[in-house]
Each structure stands twice: as C-alpha cells, then as structure tokens.
Amino acid sequence: MEQILVVDDEAAIGELIGVYLQNEGYRVFVCENAREALECIDKEKIDLVLLDVMLPDQSGFDVCRKIRENHNYPVIMLTARDQEIDKITGLTLGADDYITKPFRPLELIARVKAQLRRFIHYNPGQEDRDVAEVSGLRIDCRDHTCTLHGKKLSLTPTEFSILWVLCSNKGEVVESDRLFHEVWGDKYYSSNNNTIMVHIRHLREKMKDSAEHPKYIRTVWGVGYKIEG
C-alpha cells in the first residue's frame, strides 16, 4: 500500500484530501505545518507528498527543497494562487507537478495516480526494454536509476520520466504534446510548454549539458525535443 503525506495548514482541506485518497486505497498522513511534515518524512516511508505552498512556519518551497536533499519520490505542490511564478518556483526546486486550489477531487486523484505510476519500478524480466543507453548515459527503469559516465544522476520522478521517453526514442524528435501526454498523462496546451522547459533545463544542468551546444538533449524549436543516439 502506497503511503502519501498531505501537508496543508487548513485542517479541513487536509482531512478531506485524506478521505479522497483513503477511498482509493492509500495510507495517508496529514500534517498542518512544515515541522510536522519533516518529522513524518523522517519516520515514515513516504511514496508521494501533496504539499501546500503556504504553511505557517516555513513555505512549502522550503519543505520541497529539504525533501529533495534526500528523497526522489513525487512531490505535487498545492497552491491557491494561479501565478506562473509560483509554479515555476516549485518546479525549479524539484516539484513534479502542481494543482491550483480549488481543485476537483477526480483531478487530484488522477494526478496522484499518474505520478505514482511513473515512480513505481517496472516489472523485472524485461531487461532490453527497461534499459536505455546513449553516449555514456544509462537509464534503468528496473531500479529507477540513471548514470552518466558511471556517475549517478539524482533525478526527480518527472525528470526521470522525461529522460526515459527521450532515450527510448533516441535519434527521433519527440513532439512537445506527445512528451507532455506520456509524462503527465494530460492533454497538452501551449501553456504547458513552460512546464516542460523548466524540467528540460534542470536535466541539462544535472547532466552539465549546454542548451546552446547540446551533446544530449536538443531543442527542435516549435516541435519538441530529441536526444542524439
């Protein structure tokens, strides 16, 4: 049973989200501030965090940053402010997705399930399909690891999924709408391109790849991205 941590300073909202998730078969921990959340993370085996941006003792952004110091499970930010800067900040700090309040329960559940699907290890026994290698880059879906010239890359689940889609189609252009659909499981709109760009930038930084003269991830302007074979 997957374990989900819900962090929201409004107790009623946190408890309501908890009920939705419990009805789907998840075990849920609900915290109202950053201190409780970080204590829970230290004590429990968490598989996904739903994290409100506005908390009484620290910002959700600070908590996200601390989570990423030691964990790579999915983090979905909850925000009452539909502002692009909040979304970009969360993604920059390592969040995998964001949901704007008020949200529909079915949308919340769908986002949670999509993130968990990407994070769960692939079934063993499919070695050829579960490993991709490109010019010193090796990505293995069986144990959710990625190395570059033998050195481990610390990737978020979303970054891992993006890189896997590109590596699985090495040498081919993956259109932005296809990439968004395969990674996020949602319909693509032009506004979603900023989300993709932020994650691509993070991948390039971690791989020490140049956007101007890339060795790995190339931008095909107006179309999508490709990784050279």
From TrEMBL:
Swiss-Prot/TrEMBL GO biological process terms: regulation of DNA-templated transcription
Entry's Gene Ontology cellular component terms: cytosol; protein-DNA complex
GO molecular function: phosphorelay response regulator activity; transcription cis-regulatory region binding
Domain Response regulatory span(s) in chain numbering: 3-116
Keywords: DNA-binding, Phosphoprotein, Transcription, Transcription regulation, Two-component regulatory system
In-chain residues carrying the UniProt-annotated modification 4-aspartylphosphate: D52
DNA-binding region coordinates: 129-229
InterPro entries, per the entry: CheY-like_superfamily, OmpR/PhoB-type_DNA-bd, Sig_transdc_resp-reg_C-effctor, Sig_transdc_resp-reg_receiver, VanR-like, WalR-like, WH-like_DNA-bd_sf
SMART domains in alphabetical order: REC, Trans_reg_C
Domain OmpR/PhoB-type per the UniProt entry, residue ranges: 129-229
Pfam families per record: Response_reg, Trans_reg_C
UniProt superkingdom: Bacteria
Functional summary from the UniProt entry: May play the central regulatory role in sporulation. It may be an element of the effector pathway responsible for the activation of sporulation genes in response to nutritional stress. Spo0A may act in concert with spo0H (a sigma factor) to control the expression of some genes that are critical to the sporulation process.
NCBIfam families, sorted: vanR_ACDEGLN
Protein name: Stage 0 sporulation protein A homolog
Native organism taxonomy: Bacteria, Bacillati, Bacillota, Clostridia, Lachnospirales
